[in-house]
């Protein structure tokens, strides 16, 4: 008798997420994902420019008069979303422990959101970005698209070394590529050269941008493990440090907290809602917390 073959890796990941994440989210959010994808859960969802074939009764005449361009109103119950994932795959995204790296969390969160969106008839696409734009996966619908996206992420090898990430380049690629107004997830650890703030603000003006910020607790607080060699994942620069030194650990933590505060202020100035997700955090709890944040913001 032949031995049953194991499901391919993308299929196994999707099966795990369906059971461990999506089923729990369905229960906690009662299957209502408008808080995540539509805003406050009211019927009105968005405005977009009029296109030939649109129902003229949906034209918003007040906005049309102000802009001199015809705009139509969209509603949550009949709005088809095009969603895009702008994916930072720079070397720092491979930081973490054997049990959980930021890249593994990225795959889980992207597959989860893509699955939630496509099972409601929406389309998802992605832009892969390492030292530059590596791949554009056009927006399509269906479970096959989620498997295609997951497989591409699993097969993409880590970058051994690269110049300091320019997150602005990824966001600019999104601005050039995404034509139709879309829901855009910027998934990154936001360890980047400066200059990404203005493109993110512009992206959020043209689309609905959401920041998914991934981090590892060891990037904020060093464990006391004695002398170690620290290496910058982006540049490869190495530094010998003694983590037994309490003052060094305190300075490291203070610098990390200053960086966190500056990042939070930059994301707030861009007007984007942010899902902060640690490599050690439960994905379901993080998404439910994010849904509650968006509901409060939209009231």
Give short descriptive properties of this protein:
299 residues, alpha/beta, Rossmann fold, 10 strands, globular
Give an overview of the whole structure:
β8 (227-231) and β9 (238-242) form a beta hairpin. This protein is 41% helix and 21% strand. Mean pLDDT is 82; it is low at 39-44. It has a domain at 9-41 and 76-217 and 273-298: Rossmann fold, CATH 3.40.50. It has helices at 9-28, 34-37, 61-67, 102-118, 143-155, 167-177, 197-206, 246-270, 283-298, and strands at 44-49, 71-75, 82-88, 123-129, 133-141, 183-188, 208-215, 227-231, 238-242, 273-278. The chain is globular. The chain has 299 residues and is α/β, with parallel strands linked by helices. The longest helix is centred in the C-terminal third of the chain and has 25 residues, at 246-270.
Number of E strands? 10
Model regions low in confidence, pLDDT < 50 over at least 5 residues: 39-44
Q: Mean pLDDT, rounded to whole units? A: 82
The topology string of helices and strands comes to HHEHEEHEEHHEHEEEHEH
The N- to C-terminal Cα distance equals 61 Å
SSE order and pairing:
Layout: H1 9-28, H2 34-37, E1 44-49, H3 61-67, E2 71-75, E3 82-88, H4 102-118, E4 123-129, E5 133-141, H5 143-155, H6 167-177, E6 183-188, H7 197-206, E7 208-215, E8 227-231, E9 238-242, H8 246-270, E10 273-278, H9 283-298
Helix pairs in contact: 1-4, 1-5, 1-9, 4-5, 6-7, 7-8
């Amino acid at each position: 008798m032949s031995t049953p073959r194991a499901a391919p890796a993308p299929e196994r990941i999707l099966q795990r997420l369906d059971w461990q994440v999506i089923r729990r989210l369905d229960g906690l959010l009662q299957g209502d994902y408008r808080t995540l994808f539509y805003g406050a859960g009211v019927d009105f969802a968005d405005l977009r420019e009029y296109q030939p074939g649109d129902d003229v009764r949906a034209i918003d005449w007040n906005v049309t008069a102000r802009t001199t361009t015809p705009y139509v109103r969209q509603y949550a119950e009949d709005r088809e979303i095009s969603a895009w994932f702008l994916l930072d795959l720079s070397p720092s995204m491979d930081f973490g422990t054997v049990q959980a790296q930021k890249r593994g969390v990225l795959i889980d969160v992207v597959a989860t959101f893509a699955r939630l969106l496509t099972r409601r008839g929406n389309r998802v696409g992605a832009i892969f970005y390492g030292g530059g734009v590596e791949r554009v996966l056009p927006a399509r619908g269906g479970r096959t698209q989620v498997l295609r996206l997951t497989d591409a992420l699993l097969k993409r090898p880590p970058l051994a070394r690269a110049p300091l990430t320019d997150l602005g380049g990824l966001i600019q690629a999104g601005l050039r590529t995404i034509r139709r107004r879309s829901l855009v997830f910027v998934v990154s650890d936001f360890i980047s050269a400066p200059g990404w703030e203005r493109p993110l603000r512009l992206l959020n003006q043209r689309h609905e941008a959401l920041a998914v910020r991934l981090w590892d607790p060891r990037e904020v607080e060093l464990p006391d493990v004695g002398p170690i060699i620290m290496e910058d994942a982006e540049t490869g620069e190495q530094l010998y440090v003694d983590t037994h030194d309490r003052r060094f650990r305190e300075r490291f933590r203070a610098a990390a907290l200053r960086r966190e505060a500056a990042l939070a202020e930059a994301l707030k100035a861009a007007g984007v809602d942010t899902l902060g997700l640690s490599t050690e955090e439960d994905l379901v709890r993080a998404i439910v917390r994010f849904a509650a944040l968006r509901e409060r913001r939209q009231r």
